[in-house]
Amino acid sequence: MVLSEANWDHHVPLPKLGAAHSRILVGLLALVCFINSYDGEFVFDDSEAIVNNKDLHPSSPLNNIWTNDFWGSNLSSNSSHKSYRPLTVLTFRMNYLLAGGLHPVGFHVLNIALHCVISALMIDVFAILIGGLTYDSKGRRLNQVPRSSLLAALLFAVHPVHTESVAGIVGRADLLCALFFQFSFLAYCRAFRGGNDKTFSVSWVAASFLLCAAAMLCKEQGITVLVGKNCDMNALVRSRLVTRLTLLLFGGGVLLYARWRIMGTGPPAFTEVDNPASFAENVFLRIVNYNYYYSLNAWLLLCPWWLCFDWSMGCVPLIKSVSDWRIISLLLLWSCLIGLISQALCTQDGIKRRTLSFGLVLLVVPFLPASNLFFRVGFVIAERVLYLSTAGYCLILSYAVGYSCCLWRKHKVVAMMGLLCVNIGRSAQRSQQWRSEQSLFTSALSVCPLNAKVHYNVGKNLADRGNQMAAVQYYREAVRLHPRYVHAMNNLGNILKEKNELVEAEELLTAAVHIQPDFAAAWMNLGIVQNSLKKFAEAEQSYWNAIKYRRKYPDCYYNLGRLYADLNRHVDALNAWRNATMLKPDHSLAWNNMVILLDNTGNLAQAEMIGREALVILPNDHTIMFSLANVLGKLQKYKESEGFFLHSLKINPSAASCHGNLAVLYHRWGKLDLAKKHYELSLKLDANAPGTRENYSMLRRKLDQLQKTKG
């Protein structure tokens, strides 16, 4: 039997549009909110999940996406986060192939398009949840609440908390998970077309499970659609209840077992700075802080003004006493939830009961994997995990708006339009901030001034753009806020090393490796500083410590080779550089240093062999060409030497040293006019080029003598 439209649906100040027009409107508003992020950069976590993820490259075997985690690490590795999202990684790989490389525009456009589609599909989901499953005589599903479902979908489309999922490419996981979540739910509803036993379809239920599995392969919380379907369909239809529950339990069990087998028995390892509440020894305080986190998530849904890319490292100080005023937020949260639950259970209005019940289910259930209830998560707050939960919030909010319009009929259009416009404006503003790391990181300073990671990322961004002096200030603040922040210590130590403030650099790096003994990069940088301080024995030990904790560390072998060269331990230096090139065949500096060292020690034949070997791997490396050309010149292989010099200059025509050495070659070879030409070019590029002016003077005297002889 077809239900009549809900009374409050008539009072929603929106026109009654057809299905197609409603979807277009919702999709367009979603597009308006986030379109300005289409040409943004790769930011924040995009670096690890996309830029540095070898699973995206066509040269990487496609099978790797099924054995590696979301970040490209093998699932069996101790460092793996166990985030298994192969379908999401597959879409990244498709973006890479279609764009011919890492061009962010294609990645962003697909994210925006996915959000538009999801927002449009929310109309169908909300129509079922509010108005129920009803059909006309031809078996077509009817939307009994066109205005309310449209309003809820509009609120979902423009909510600013979605910015991280849409403008941040890594948020693709949440978008795809939500899309397959919707497909799974709608397929499951399709199985009950007509609402009686005769139209129950096992095939549609099976399709729903496959779509649930796809959602789970995009992001772990996709499994929660099974809970939602069970709650929703028990209220919507009563056909074959035992059969449906059996299928849900069996399908859910299979999916959870498969996920457990893939992840293994060991949970991912997180640190206290990632989620400090989960490390609280007092169980009561742990529960209190978890609930405080929930209240902050709820506040982000209610007032999405204070948004931040990262909420860890002191951004949310722990509640350590019952006298902390923030406990009020817990009481408010649970008062609101209990009030909504009581309204849903006690009301005689079927529409109200269904709307509030489904809203609460959709609000809470998708959030459960991030709640710390079942396992420790690696964050305090993550706006992207609220993507699906926002649908539940918008469902409840749409009811509140509709009910308010029944009571307060004046200015209701202005009020609703104002709500939508404020959200659109905030979404567009936040989307703009996500376009670059500079704007994203600096926007967080006012939201989380106590977050050491925010200051660290601002400093790192400044350093990457060449502003190291400004970066020092933010690195120091990061270390002040979190005295055990080893990455900030390491980066600050590197800058101080470049500024020749070696003593403080050594102190910082020593502290970093003391806090985290397996920090290989800090050990290597400490070795470089100790080498500069002439502490050669300590430097050697630091390099070997770095290699101990990261066995495949070509840069460390390179720096170890430099140390041995300074100590005239030539064989050890050559072995270290050879190790560097074996681990990283395109390590140009290691190859070049081997050629130069062999040249300087008179091993010209071996230097020639190494140089030629290097150019097979790096055929366009002008520095190696230059070094090999010098060797060939000393071996009196003038023609070959000339060829390498000219090739090097073709690649780097402004190299004064190359012009100068080519001039020396021509000088020895007797091609004095060419020697004169390249001496002059070298001096033009660098008037203080070592030895060039003296050689040029010698050539001029020789040319003058020849001129006199001819005269």
Automatic annotation (TrEMBL):
PROSITE patterns hit by this protein: TPR
What protein am I looking at?
A: dolichyl-phosphate-mannose--protein mannosyltransferase
Pathway assigned in UniProt = Protein modification; protein glycosylation
**Gene Ontology BP term (one):** endoplasmic reticulum unfolded protein response
Q: Which InterPro entries match?
A: O-mannosyl-transferase_TMTC, TMTC_DUF1736, TPR-like_helical_dom_sf, TPR_rpt
The Enzyme Commission number assigned here is 2.4.1.109
List the SMART domains: TPR
Q: Which residues form the DUF1736 domain?
A: 266-338
Q: Which domain of life is it from?
A: Eukaryota
Map the TPR repeats onto residue numbers: 452-485, 486-519, 554-587
- Subcellular localization, per the record? Endoplasmic reticulum; Membrane
Q: Which GO molecular function annotations are given, in alphabetical order? A: dolichyl-phosphate-mannose-protein mannosyltransferase activity
TM region positions: 112-133, 200-217, 237-258, 290-307, 327-346, 358-379, 385-408
Species name: Denticeps clupeoides (denticle herring)
The membrane topology noted for this protein in its Swiss-Prot or TrEMBL record is: Multi-pass membrane protein
Q: Which SUPFAM superfamilies match?
A: TPR-like (SSF48452)
**Family from the record:** Belongs to the TMTC family.
